[in-house]
């Protein structure tokens, strides 16, 4: 049997933590890459980074520029979706909002979760409380209803602690 790749998807906030030199973000990245994990980002994370590079406040622009310049240096790989999968991601995002699992203004979070599921990456790493505070059983039902594989959300600190 072929060995499955160990994959983790990263949120924009984790990339910005790396750009700002956060110890926990770099500890997470180094520890998991040393264990053979592939760290990946989806299209919406890249779009958020590019948008903030172009339109963010000066501090956001600086961090976004650093993210875009160092992504490959950090050995973080982008993944893309097929065109039809973008529509599936939008429908999943709407489902999360209809169920009041995400605030209305957090449109990208639902897209990012769906993109992660469509890429068949089981773990999403974020420090975003909106995502971390979703009741896992409710999230599981939403993924099941959409015929998508479950994605679990974890804070990078919790994952680093789990390695000890």
Individual helix count: 9
Sequence of strands across the biggest β-sheet: 3-2-1-4-5
Number of strands: 5
Mean pLDDT: 95
Largest sheet: 5 strands, parallel
Coarse morphology: globular
Pick out the low-confidence regions. Answer: none
In percent, how helical is the residue content? 55-70%
Calculate Rg over CA atoms. Answer: 15 Å
Q: Which labels suit this protein?
A:
single chain; alpha/beta; 9 helices; globular
What do these coordinates show?
By secondary structure, this protein is α/β, with parallel strands linked by helices. The chain has 9 helices and 5 strands, in the order E-H-H-E-H-H-E-H-H-E-H-H-E-H. A 5-stranded parallel β-sheet has the order 3-2-1-4-5. The chain starts with 6 loop residues before the first strand and ends with a helix.
Question: What is the structure about, briefly put?
Answer:
This protein has 164 residues and is α/β, with parallel strands linked by helices. The protein has helices at residues 12-19, 23-34, 43-55, 58-70, 83-98, 107-118, 129-132, 136-145, 156-162; strands at residues 7-10, 38-41, 76-78, 123-125, 152-154.
């Amino acid at each position: 049997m072929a060995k499955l790749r160990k994959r983790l998807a990263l949120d924009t906030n984790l990339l910005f933590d790396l750009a700002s030199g956060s110890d926990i973000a770099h500890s997470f990245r180094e520890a998991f890459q040393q264990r053979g994990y592939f760290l990946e980002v989806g299209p919406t994370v890249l779009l958020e980074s590019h948008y903030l590079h172009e339109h963010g406040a000066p501090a956001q622009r600086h961090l976004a520029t650093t993210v875009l310049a160092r992504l490959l240096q950090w050995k973080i790989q982008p993944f893309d979706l097929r065109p039809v999968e973008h529509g599936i991601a939008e429908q999943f995002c709407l489902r999360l909002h209809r169920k009041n699992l995400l605030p209305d203004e957090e449109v990208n979070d639902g897209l990012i979760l769906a993109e992660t599921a469509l890429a068949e990456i089981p773990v999403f790493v974020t420090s975003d409380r909106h995502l971390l505070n979703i009741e896992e059983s409710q999230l599981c039902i939403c993924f099941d209803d959409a015929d998508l594989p479950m994605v679990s959300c974890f804070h990078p600190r919790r994952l680093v602690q789990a390695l000890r």
